[in-house]
Amino acid sequence: MDDAEKQDTIEAVTARIIARHPDASRTLVARAVAEEYDQLASGRIRTYIPTLIERGAWNRINRESAARPVDEP
């Protein structure tokens, strides 16, 4: 994939995650999506990369959110 395709994929996946989870930080989501993309970019079968990126990014966001302490009132 060229840089334009990569950016389009990252933006599309980020937008899908934000649409389903509007409370998630866009910066955090975009970073997780880009990191997941980089891990999968060398794969031979490219059909499912956006789906795999979305799932991996969302799992990472959930793990990071769970690791943060909850502020008590």
Automatic annotation (TrEMBL):
Gene3D superfamilies: Corynebacterium glutamicum thioredoxin-dependent arsenate reductase, N-terminal domain. This is Three-helix bundle dimerization domain-containing protein.
